[in-house]
Each structure stands twice: as C-alpha cells, then as structure tokens.
Write a structure and sequence with these properties.
The complex is a heterodimer of chains A (246) and B (368). In chain A, 36% of the residues lie in helices and 26% in strands. Chain A is built from 9 helices and 10 strands. Chain B folds into 2 domains: 7-39 and 170-362, no CATH class; 47-147, abc type-2 transporter like fold, CATH 3.40.1710. Chain B has helices spanning 2-16, 19-39, 58-69, 82-90, 104-109, 125-150, 171-201, 203-208, 214-243, 252-276, 280-297, 310-317, 320-334, 342-367; strands spanning 47-53, 73-79, 96-100, 116-120. The chains are: A alpha/beta (246), B alpha/beta (368).
C-alpha cells in the first residue's frame, strides 16, 4: 500500500512554546488514522500544517504526494476538511451548501446536480433539499457536512473532532459513513475525544505535549500497555503530560 | 471567476436572508435622511423671544415689529422688568431676550450709540450663538433703514449675499453627511462583521483549507456591500433631490466617481478592522467607536471643523468621511469642476492604498 501522508521530524514553535515537537508518521491509502491527544497536545496544530493552513518551523511532510512547503495549492485540491466547529452555512439551503463547496473544488455544474440527488437519496434527505441547514437537527448537519467534505472525492479527508456533541446513535451512523469512505479508497485522518471511537480506527497515534508517545493499531496498543481499552492506554500516557490545558 | 461568482452569490444570500441586515441596509438611510431633514435641524425658525422695551418709542416699536415679522423669530412676551425675563427663561417660554435701553430713538438720532442687550439661553451654546447672530442681523438691517430715513448721507449699505445655499437650508449640509455615514456603516462595519463572522464560526478555516484563494474570498465578501452602497447612494440622492429639494449642480459622473472612491476606502477600512478583530462584537465596537462616531462628529457633518480644538482638527484630517463630505459639497452643492476637488480625490485614493497595504501585511502575518 502506498503512503498518502508522510511526516518527517515535523516541528512547530510559537515563540518559546513548542506546539509540535519533532513528530514523524506515515498514513496508508484508505486507512482510518485516529489522531488522539488531550486539549493542547498539539494535534490541531499538526493537522492545520498538513492542511496547508499553517507552516511548520522545521521538518517536512507530503500529503497526497505533494510537499506541504511548496505545493499547498495542490494539496488543497486533493483533500477534504471538516471540523466540529463549523458544519456548513446555516442560512443556506442544503443544496446551496453542496453546490457552493463542490464548486470550490472545481466540479462541473451537471456533475454536481446529478451527484447531489444521489447523495440526498443515500442519506434519506430528499425532502430536505430546500431546507435551510439551520433547521436540520445537529446529527443531520454533521452527516451532511461529512458528505460535503468528501463530495469531490478527495484523496484524504481531515476530520477535526467531527462527532462533538452528537448523540450515540448518530455517532454510530457517522462512523459507518467513515467506513464507507475508507472502503472507496479515501484516507481518513480523524481527531477525536471519544476513546470508544478510537477503537474503530485502523491505527491510532497518541500525542502528549507535542510528541507522539504511542502509535499502532488499537489492538496492539492495548496489548503493549496491558490495558482493557484505549481509554486506559490514553490515561496512562496522559499522566506524563507536564503541560497545562490551554 | 466561477468561484468568485458562486461566492458572491452566497454573500448576497447571507444578506437577503437576514432580516436585521436587510432592515439596516434598506431602512436606515431613509430614516436618517428624514431624521436629519425634519428633526435634527439647525435652522432658526420662529424661535420664541421676549422683549423689554424701556424706550417705547416709534423706532423701538418698528424694531420689534421687524423681529416679529422675520421668519426666524416670533415675539411672544413683552416684559416690564428684568425680573420677568429670568422667570420666562426658567419656564422655557423664550430662548432669547432683547432689552432696549431708555431714549432709544433720541440717542440714535443724536448718534449717542444707543444700546441693545441680548440675553440668550446658553445651555446649548451653539444654538445661543446662532440665535444672537440672527437677531443681530435683523436688528442691524432695521437700524440701517432707520438711519437711511433720517440721514441719507451717512449711508453704509451692507448687503449680504449667501452663495450656493441662499435659503440657508440645513439639508444642503447634511445630505453629504448622511451619505458619508451610511457608507461607513454598510462598507466598514457590516463588511468587517461579516468577515469576522466567518472566522468566528470556523468557516474561514474550511475555506482556507480549500483551493479557493483568500483574495477571492475577500473580494466576493465585499462585492455585495459595494453594490448595496451604490443603491444606498442612489436612494439618498433621490430622496434629497425629490423630497428635500437639494439641487445636484455638479456633473453626475464626477459625483458618482467620488462615491465609488469613498466606498472603496470604506471597504478597505472594513477589511482592516476584520484583520484586527477576533470576534464579531469587537469588530462592531471598533467600527462604532473608531469609525462611526468620528465620522459623525468630526467630519464636518454636524460641527464646523475649523472651530474645533486643534487636536480634534488633526483627527478630523484622517477621517475619510471628512474628505468625502468636503468634496461632495463642492461637487454637488457648489457645482464646481472636478479639478477643484483633486486634493480630496488624491487623499481618498492614497488612504485606500495605505489601508489595503496594511491589511495585506496583517493578513500575511496571521497565516504564519
């Protein structure tokens, strides 16, 4: 399997504060890669660098085969991005949101139209095509946001705590969508707070104070740390932290 | 281009679907025009005055009649003593009292310089000053006629001619002011708030992680506000021309050009505010305190700049509204040629460039 994300000795400093401290890892095509860490551990900073939103202080990385230092424009065309904070424009209708974001990624108009209908059918949202997003329940919004993030069929989708505040049933459905995407060959890079969700990932990395302290499959990690579940592994590692929560 | 269009369309949708925004955009200019046109007028009209006539002769009576006849004053009280004057002021019956001394006619004829005293309610100093000026004018004119009748040889005929605004209508003054103000609200305040909103809600992050260029985002963001400002300008012109009777003397083309330059300055102000402010509230407060208030108070719209303290005069020089109002007065009311407002154009255009440069710099720093 080819590596779609390659990170080598990546460091990001803000003044004296080292947010990301010399991390290295690879993510394979179609993999669901869980990026775990407490608040302030540096996972968001690292993810922002990979998305081209921020520049590293040192180190190098390739995303989808493109160098983050020189080819961020090409990277942006090949990734999808979704964060918990923002799920689509509230005062735009469902189809308007889809059209807007699909347009940004350069999809043709008729392609957008036909794919929109297919998508809404899959989600069971046919009736909501003309609904304003703010009138949808939160769980629906998140599902729609994820669908929009992978609508243009990116190589990699970055999910920043995508299931925050969502009820367990919707979370379950959401993860089914993630599995489907991964089966289609889309690599999923996901940060999460929920340790049960970490168990669904193919591989996870756990960041503590800007460094990656553990990285393996959930099964391996549990064995290595002799733990019942990932939550326990996480707690054992998080104890090492000397950083205050930001 | 396609990206730009779909983004601009999205911005229009944001505006159209927000009732409050629509209200501000459509109703505010009209309300402000009506407010300034009919409520906040600085003209003197039928002000109540009282008179203590100690002389009670022919000339003093004629003088009082003259005051009463004028459109500025109406004489509502004739006092018998000084103490009555104070009472009348306390009861707010009058805003100005005029005291004519003994033997007024006699002194006037024998050239002993008779005295007239004016007492004004100076709790509003500007208003008091205006009243005294108007009253002095009426009295001087009246006495001039008297002296002409008595002694035609000592004729000093001063004639007052008011250029450009012969009727002293305050609407000539505030129409440019309202334009300057509305554009700051729409372009600087609403634009900055709408950009900061995207950042606050997290959508800016998502847009920056997409292939769309930041310049496209910003341009599409300001386009709707640009269009709306043009519509506002048009509304204000129509209301002022047809309802308030303010003439448009200069060339429409140069007025239009000036408005566009001013709109661009205001938009770049809005962009600059959005690079500084982290939340919508901060953007709102910055625009209101640093942009709106000075545009209203220091731009020459309400108060004369040349009579302000030096430090405020200095601040007034960096307000875009000041230059816009000065130029549009010249173009619209005086009807002068464009080359006479060259300085204003130059200042506004340079402001625009400087603001955009600073914004770009700030923006770059943020990305690092």
């Amino acid at each position: 399997m080819e590596d779609v994300i390659v990170v080598r000795d990546l460091t990001k400093r803000f003044g004296h504060f080292v947010a990301v401290d010399n991390i290295s890892f690879n993510v394979k095509k179609g993999e669901i890669f869980g990026f775990l860490g407490a608040n302030g551990a540096g996972k968001t900073t690292a993810m922002r660098i990979l998305c081209g939103l921020s520049r590293p202080t040192s180190g190098e990385a390739w995303v989808g085969g493109f160098d983050i230092r020189h080819e961020s424009e090409k990277i942006k065309k090949n990734i999808g991005y979704m964060s918990q904070k923002f799920s689509l424009y509230q005062d735009l209708k469902v189809w308007e949101n889809i059209k807007l974001f699909a347009g940004i990624y350069g999809m043709k108009r008729n392609e957008i139209a036909s794919k929109t209908d297919i998508l809404l059918k899959e989600l069971g949202f046919e009736k909501e095509k003309n609904t304003l997003v703010k009138d949808l329940p939160l769980g629906w919004k998140q599902k729609l946001a994820f669908s929009v993030a992978i609508f243009h069929n990116p190589k990699i989708v970055f999910l920043d705590e995508p299931t925050g505040g969502v009820d367990p049933i919707t979370r379950r459905q959401f993860w089914e969508m993630i599995y489907n995407a991964s089966q289609k060959g889309i690599t999923v890079f996901v940060t999460t707070h929920y340790m049960d969700e970490a168990e669904y990932c193919d591989r996870i990395s756990i960041m503590v104070d800007g460094r990656i302290e553990a990285m393996s499959s959930p099964k391996e990690l549990k064995r290595e740390f002799n733990a019942e579940n990932i939550d326990e592994v996480f707690r054992l590692l998080a104890k090492k932290s000397t950083r205050k929560e930001i | 281009m396609k990206q730009f269009l779909s983004f601009a369309k999205k911005e229009f949708l944001h505006i159209f679907r927000d009732t409050w925004t629509m209200m501000i955009i459509l109703v505010l200019p009209v309300i402000m025009m009506l407010l300034f046109g009919y409520a906040v007028t600085t003209e003197v009209r039928d002000t109540n005055i009282g008179i203590l006539d100690n002389s009670r002769d022919e000339i003093s009576k004629r003088l009082i009649d003259k005051l009463d006849e004028s459109e500025y004053f109406s004489v509502v009280r004739a006092f018998n003593s000084n103490s009555e004057i104070e009472k009348a002021f306390r009861r707010s019956e009058i805003s100005l009292a005029i005291i004519i001394e003994n033997d007024f006619s006699k002194k006037l004829i024998t050239k002993q310089n008779p005295k007239i005293q004016m007492i004004a309610d100076a709790s509003d100093p500007n208003h008091a000053k205006t009243l005294v000026n108007y009253a002095s004018g009426v009295i001087a004119q009246s006495l001039m006629q008297e002296s002409k009748a008595n002694n035609p040889s000592s004729l000093i005929n001063t004639e007052l001619k008011l250029l450009y605004n012969p009727l002293m209508k305050s609407s000539y003054n505030f129409v440019p002011g309202v334009m300057g103000f509305i554009i700051i609200i729409v372009c600087a305040m609403m634009t900055s708030v709408s950009i900061v909103r995207e950042r606050e809600r997290g959508s800016m992050e998502l847009l920056l992680a997409s292939p769309v260029k930041p310049i496209t985002i910003i341009l599409s963001k300001v386009t709707p506000y640009f269009c709306i400002s043009l519509i506002n300008i048009l509304t204000i012109f129509l209301v002022s021309y047809f309802i308030m009777g303010v003439p448009i003397k200069g060339s429409i083309f140069s007025i239009f050009l000036l408005c566009i330059v001013y709109i661009l300055v205001s938009l770049s102000l809005g962009i600059l505010v959005s690079t500084i402010a982290k939340t919508q509230l901060v953007a709102l407060v910055i625009s209101a305190i640093i942009l709106l208030m000075p545009s209203m108070l220091l731009s020459g719209m309400m108060f004369d700049i040349s009579s302000m303290p030096l430090i405020l005069q200095g601040i007034a020089q960096i307000m875009p509204a000041k230059w816009f109002i000065s130029a549009i007065r010249k173009l619209m009311i005086m009807g002068v040629d464009v080359r006479f407002v060259f300085k204003e154009f130059l200042v506004l255009i340079s402001m625009c460039f400087v603001l955009i440069l600073i914004s770009l710099k700030k923006y770059k720093n943020r990305l690092e």
